[in-house]
Amino acid sequence: MAPIVHVIDPDYDTVLILKNASTKFASWPSEDEPSIAAPTTPFNTYQKKRKALKAYKAELTAVPSRTTDATTSVSSTAPEEKEVHYHVSSRHLQLASPWFKRAMTKDGWAESKLINGHHQVLAHDWDEQAFRTLLNMLHLRNKQVPRTVSLEMLAKTAVLVDYYECGEAIELFTATWIGYVQETEIPSTYCRDLILWIWVAWVFDLSQQFEDATAAVIKESNEAMETLELPIPNSVSSEVDLRRYQALESVIGGLHGLLDQYRSNSYVCKHNSTLSFQCGSFLLGALTKELGGWSLLSPRPEIPFQELVFSDICAKVENARSPHWCCTYSRGYGVHDGQHACNLTQNVKEIVSKAKSGVVGLSLSNMRSSGSDVGAQSASQLGLCFA
User: Fold this and answer.
1) 230 near 26, Cβ under 8 Å?
2) In terms of Cα–Cα distance, which of 122, 99, 112, 90 is closest to 9?
3) What is the pLDDT of residues 25-68, one digit of tens each?
4) pLDDT in tens, 222-254
5) Domain regions of the chain by residue span
6) How many helices (H) and strands (E) does the chain have?
7) Can you spell out the DSSP letters for 3-51?
8) Strand partners, 86
């Protein structure tokens, strides 16, 4: 099969050969996809994301002219793939990318000539158009670079920038693209674009967008954070998951703590201690019914809170119904009936308000400085085990 050829530099000395050009990128799991039997745990999530990271980052190698017998054997049995050839300048690539500089100055590079006198470098799985655009930028072919791109194309470019370590070389272009993409607000629902924003913000150092997008995942996701097989660091996804656990536990734990308080024989009504039994009984019954209606009573939801969404739980709790009852009060000037002042709705709203105030997105600078220790530290605080 004849390769597709993109001439980036007419006076090229190197051919970048892209094999197995990607046709899918960061696919969102289908709703009708069969579920995995094993429950989602922080450890399983860690393992999954490690494997995804290894699979996603393609192995690129400089190909010498003298191949070993083993290499020849493998290539002869491999199925024929569509190839895309990019004619490029090794000097441009080395100036712009530490990755290319390392690859093109290692032992054997100077002797690795093809028959036609050009170096050869292999790449796998990249998006053909995104790779072409990146190479145009690195070769200063400005008229061949689009002035605006979609969030998806920006995310594809971010994958290449992360791999080839060339963010500084194309900063003027990506700053313009980011300005355009920012005209559309970050999604407030848990979806594919929200994860793309986290990835873009991570690579291009967008602190506010990173905080906003991770906060949205904490509030709106019903599962361990999906990374779409993007090379999002495990420390980021794990910290998001753990903050989601903390937020949900703050509400659910607070409600069950309130339930225990009303159930206790030592409960004392804060408005009239002589009515403690009646007050506790009314509030206990009301909260028990509401928790049952919200499916939060029995069994009590536990980490990892699969299928539970923090924002949905908060909305339900804030609309909790409170019973109203009248009591007879004796005062110095006589006896009269009046509505009891204790209110379930007010009490549960205080729990929700406290939980909401504790939900914040991740700090980009903190995540970069703390690295992989963040998830482990948070896990220990929650009593989780990753080993």
Assistant:
1) yes
2) 90
3) 999 987 444 444 334 444 344 344 444 444 434 343 444 333 33
4) 999 999 999 999 999 999 999 999 999 999 999
5) 1-22+42-71+79-145
6) 15, 6
7) PEEEES-TT-SEEEEEES--S--SPPPPTTSPPPSSPP-HHHHHHHHHH
8) 6, 16
